Amino acid sequence: MPVPYVPTLGPVRPGNPLPELFEAVVEIAGTGRFLPYDKDRRWSERKAERVLVGAIEHGRHQTLVPTLAERGAGVVKVHVYGAAPDSLSAGADLARKLAAVHGAAKARVVWFLGPEQPEAYAQGVGTRVQLKDFAEGPGEAPGVSVHEDKQLHEGAGFTEFAEQMAADGFVFLHEQMRAGTVGPVLTVLHDGRVVGAIGPMETMADVGGAARLLPQYFGVLPQYRGHGYGRALWRAAMHWGHQHSAAYQLLQTEVGGASDRLCAAEGLASLGFVSQRDA
């Protein structure tokens, strides 16, 4: 496995017991239950993606693990592990077949590249898996004042910020904040108005019991980029994680994107690439 990645769970920390994790996601497939260390359980009461156990194809040089996400019109993804010459075409064929069987609107193939591979291979079709290890400390302090959402007054304009950043998931996050179901959100202000945010700030124990800082929604309004606000938010989030005893954080960043470049500049370790395309 060039990247430690488990279908329906996503990337996992190097050293986590991969065989046991694969067995666990297969065991609960179709039950709608969450594994206790599944990061998605904070958003829903029922798991919406499952491994299609009967359609797994496992051989000496290649393994295909299909999943079905039942959100919306449905998506079948076939995760390709192995280096057989026709691995991707075999995965695409299986994805199309299973999408037809299950009435899913989309069929995709997912494959993996190690960190030593040129990032050009994943440009436009993939994400980089990044690891922040808090054993090395939280990193530098933010150079700009950062606030928690509970410190904000209504006039700070988080609602307007969320609406302008709807494409980045902030409308959904704002709904969860108002419902009181998520941890704190860190914000940066310009002339008293919210122009950037990262959150929610939460940890969850992984399969080995280590505390993992969970991925966050993260964004700065386009007209306020270039002021160091994104870097300040990121550094404040890392200090929050360190102060709350997180052992590490795993992130997936768009290859070549702003967050990808920021994580590289902040010293995160690349664990490789997760690429996908329509079958």
Structure description:
- With 279 residues, this protein is of the alpha+beta class.
- 24% of the residues lie in helices and 29% in strands.
- The chain is built from 6 helices and 16 strands.
- The chain has helices at residues 18-27, 87-102, 158-164, 170-179, 229-243, 258-265; strands spanning 5-6, 10-11, 49-51, 57-58, 62-69, 75-82, 106-113, 126-133, 147-148, 186-190, 193-199, 203-205, 211-213, 217-220, 248-254, 269-278.
- Strand 5 (62-69) and strand 6 form a beta hairpin.
- The mean pLDDT is 94.
Task: Give the SSE layout.
Layout: E1 5-6, E2 10-11, H1 18-27, E3 49-51, E4 57-58, E5 62-69, E6 75-82, H2 87-102, E7 106-113, E8 126-133, E9 147-148, H3 158-164, H4 170-179, E10 186-190, E11 193-199, E12 203-205, E13 211-213, E14 217-220, H5 229-243, E15 248-254, H6 258-265, E16 269-278
Parallel strand pairs: 6-7, 13-15
Antiparallel strand pairs: 1-2, 3-5, 4-5, 5-6, 7-16, 8-15, 8-16, 9-10, 10-11, 11-14, 12-13
Helix pairs in contact: 3-4
| DSSP strand tally | 16
N- to C-terminal distance: 22 Å
Q: Give the low-pLDDT segments.
A: none
SS summary, helix count? 6
- Rg over CA atoms, rounded to whole Å, is 20 Å
Give average pLDDT, whole number: 94
Beta-sheet strand percentage?
A: 25-35%
Please give the largest β-sheet.
Answer: 10 strands, mixed
Spell out the helices and strands N to C.
EEHEEEEHEEEHHEEEEEHEHE
Measured as a percent range, the helix fraction is 10-25%
The 3D shape can be described as globular
Question: What is the SS-derived class?
Answer: alpha+beta
